[in-house]
From TrEMBL:
It comes from the Bacteria. InterPro entries: FAD-dep_OxRdtase, FAD/NAD-bd_sf. Gene3D superfamilies: D-Amino Acid Oxidase, subunit A, domain 2, FAD/NAD(P)-binding domain. Residues 47-415 form the FAD dependent oxidoreductase domain. This is FAD dependent oxidoreductase domain-containing protein. SUPFAM superfamilies: FAD/NAD(P)-binding domain. The lineage of its organism: Bacteria, Bacillati, Actinomycetota, Actinomycetes, Streptosporangiales. GO terms for cellular component: cytoplasm.
Length: 480
């Protein structure tokens, strides 16, 4: 991505008169920002205290309460339930799992990694089933996932990836190359190959998180909003572990951190997970004529095989929502600014939209936003519960947390209830990564890595048949 979008480029982007940047996300603009729940009234005592009311915190509370209805559970949320990535994402409920399979296999064996991948596939259906059973309407359509290659290097990589994943838990019917005349049709300009997996669904992220919060509350979980936790205290002698907020201290048998991309703001966790940005834009609804040209009747979630990849969905009301990395990282693990995204990220995403769907390039962009996701130093997600300190966490999902957070919630349930199950034996349980480097190395490293990935994409678009060596260098530097 060029760091500065020219004024002419910005003018070329058709914008709706209603265009907005930030305001958490377009998904919340559709629903309206929620009325806040009450803050923590003072010191309190619970069995389990969860910090963060995104998918991770809410799924954990959901499964604990379902299993043991008399458990007293509090969730402390700094803003409102779904304020973070859970209310802003691209709506891919997919079986994709971030993290190096080899790294997990080194500790737990290949079979355990394959079990994790199969659990992720089952998780897509688990979320769909619970949403249905609990009456959460989140515009869910299980149309699968399509990944397009728009040059020959990308195609070669797609083929390699299919072969690789078949070594790690995907059977041939789980991810495969599509025939050119595959139906339902989805016409992506310049596509030279497409791969498909049935293990994905399109969702409306904010409807899912809002619905889940209401369900959890109805089960008897106390959700306190406007309550920022500043410190997590481990168990010490007779003192139970605690979450400390300005309004009071909550003591519990277990305190679970579910703060993902915001983790760096809690004392003592500054370098644990890097807050990586992801940005999105969404168009006005496209006309029936434009949809006829594009197709996309299967509502598959769509991605490309670029290094700085995009992800997209056709929304329930006929828009295209498309996202990508944008400006990857703010210096010093900087703060989220209510979802506002930089002009260059908007320009980059619009260029991708116009390139992949020329028929949609006249459609005005109505909203742009961004969010943060958590990236561990080795890019491997984890679930962790330390019985001695009473502290636990789940996250570091990199860009794939919609389904993974549900698997994390069920796993944390079993860990808190001290059960030894198939879930607690999965290889991401107990995994730990070293801390990120101090600044300015974090900033320089992240921008260098994404600069190299973008350079590799440019090279691959113009001349190479194979993955550019720039990308190989970036992956090495990133420590993935
Ligand atoms: C733009 C974007 C697009 C994405 N697209 C996809 C996608 O299509 N598919 C996919 O699988 N994944 C996607 N992801 C990632 C996915 O959304 C996340 O992995 C997932 O939502 C993480 O859920 P979470 O509950 O762990 O974190 P979050 O949803 O970020 O929730 C953390 C919560 O903790 C609260 N909090 C933070 N600090 C404190 C504190 N100190 N005290 C109290 N509360 C606190 C926050 O306010 C927030 O509500 C995307 C992410 C982004 C940003």
């Amino acid at each position: 991505m060029r760091l500065i979008a020219s004024a002419a480029e910005m003018r070329a982007i058709p914008r709706s008169k209603e265009f907005r940047n930030g305001a958490v996300s377009f998904w919340y603009r559709e629903l309206g920002l929620p009325k806040r729940r009450a803050a923590l009234p003072g010191d309190a005592d619970y069995d389990v205290c969860i910090v963060g009311a995104g998918y991770t915190g809410l799924w954990t509370a959901y499964y604990l309460k379902k299993e043991q209805p008399d458990l007293r559970i509090a969730i402390l949320e700094r803003e409102f339930a779904g304020f973070g990535a859970s209310g802003r994402n691209g709506g891919w409920l997919s079986a994709e799992f971030a993290g190096s399979r080899e790294r997990y296999a080194k500790e737990h064996g290949k079979g355990a990694v394959i079990a994790l991948q199969r659990a992720m596939m089952a998780t897509v259906d688990e979320v769909i089933t619970v949403a249905k059973d609990e009456g959460i309407d989140a515009d869910i359509v299980k149309g699968g996932m399509r990944i397009v290659a728009t040059n020959h290097a990308q195609k070669a990589r797609l083929l390699q990836e299919i072969a690789y994943l078949q070594e790690w838990g995907y059977w041939p019917e789980d991810y495969y190359l599509l025939e050119p005349d595959y139906e339902p049709m989805l016409r992506v300009d310049g596509a030279v190959a497409e791969a498909f997996s049935p293990h994905a669904a399109r969702i409306h992220p904010a409807k899912l998180v809002r619905g889940l919060a209401a369900v959890v509350e109805n089960l008897g979980v106390d959700i306190f909003e406007g309550t920022a936790v500043t410190e997590l205290r481990p168990r010490k002698d007779a003192q139970r572990p605690a979450a400390v907020a300005e309004q009071g201290t909550v003591r519990a048998d277990y305190v679970i951190r579910a703060t993902e991309g915001f983790t760096a703001e809690i004392a003592g966790y500054r370098r644990q997970w890097l807050p990586m940005n992801s940005s999105m834009i969404v168009t006005e609804p496209l006309s029936p004529e434009v949809w006829k040209r594009i197709g996309w009747e299967g509502h598959e979630v769509l991605g490309d095989a670029a290094h700085a990849y995009i992800y997209a969905q056709r929304t329930a009301d006929g828009r295209i929502a498309i996202g990508g990395r944008g400006v990857p990282y703010r210096f010093g693990s900087g703060h989220d600014t209510n979802g506002a995204t930089q002009p260059q990220a908007i320009a980059e995403l619009w260029r991708a939209l116009a390139r992949l769907f020329p028929a949609a390039s006249e459609a005005p962009v109505v909203h742009a936003w961004s969010g943060v996701l958590g990236v561990p130093r080795d890019w491997c997600p984890s679930v962790y519960l330390d019985r001695t300190s009473g502290l636990g966490w789940a996250g570091g999902y990199v860009g794939s947390g919609v389904a993974t957070s549900n698997l994390a919630g069920r796993t944390l349930r079993d860990l808190v209830l001290e059960r030894n199950t198939d879930l607690t034996r999965l290889p991401w349980v107990g995994h730990r990564a070293r801390d990120w480097e101090p600044e300015p190395l974090r900033w320089i490293g992240t921008h260098l890595v994404y600069g190299l990935y973008r350079g590799a994409d440019r090279r691959e678009a113009s001349r190479t048949l194979e993955t550019s060596t720039l990308a190989e260098l970036a992956t090495k530097l990133a420590g993935r």
